[in-house]
Amino acid sequence: MITLTEAQLMAWLTPILWPFLRVLAVFTAAPIFSSRAIPVRARIALALLIAFAAQPSLPSQLPINLNGPEALGAVVQQVGIGLAIGFVVRLVFAVFELAGEVVGFQMGLNFASFFDPTFNAQTSATARFYGYMASLLFIVLNGHLMVLMAVIRSFEVFPVNQNFLEALSLMKLYSLGGELFASGFWIALPVVGMLMFANLALGIVSRVAPQMNIYAVGFPITLTVGLVGMAATLPMLDQPFVALMERAIDIFTGR
Prior knowledge:
The protein is mainly α. The protein has helices spanning 6-29, 40-53, 70-107, 125-140, 143-157, 164-171, 176-208, 214-233, 238-253; strands at residues 113-116, 121-124.
């Protein structure tokens, strides 16, 4: 009869349990992975598969007794770090949505807002468009692989222990705030500049020909200029997306 001791079971389960919890937390918070189109059972199965496949790449871990109080601290750390990774990736998507909001405000399309069930909030058409472009770039440029690489490399920077607050202080997520806002405005700057010159030209026309109804003419012109500017800048969105993803991933890879 085959008998297994508790120490043997813990030695087999803990190397898979901690990566599984961290990957599952990422799938809960990160865009695309947390989509409602992906069933919960599929996320759990994929997280377990990734945790099992990543075993050769993971550093050796200190054994933690699952029956002791230190297990609760380890669980909190894994879930917290996983949620932090997903939150940072979500911030990258928010940069493009911010750029879409700014462009939509200048184009006059912010009134064309609708309810987004994904975030339970009102979003404009341009912000939703830029969000879709970010999702497309995330898949095309292997952003999902970058996120999984960050999860695996995070075990070297943040090993399994009970010090979640220490790991949170090392991440310095607050430092991303100014950079992400600046990136969003830089992405929207070309289109906003084109719209500014269009509005300047309309202002000159309204002074030269006061009898012209500038409100009836201005909206189609600004809308056309904005759409042309968006189409012209779309091929250049990959560079800021890659730069933002690398900046976000560097937090968890120790670079």
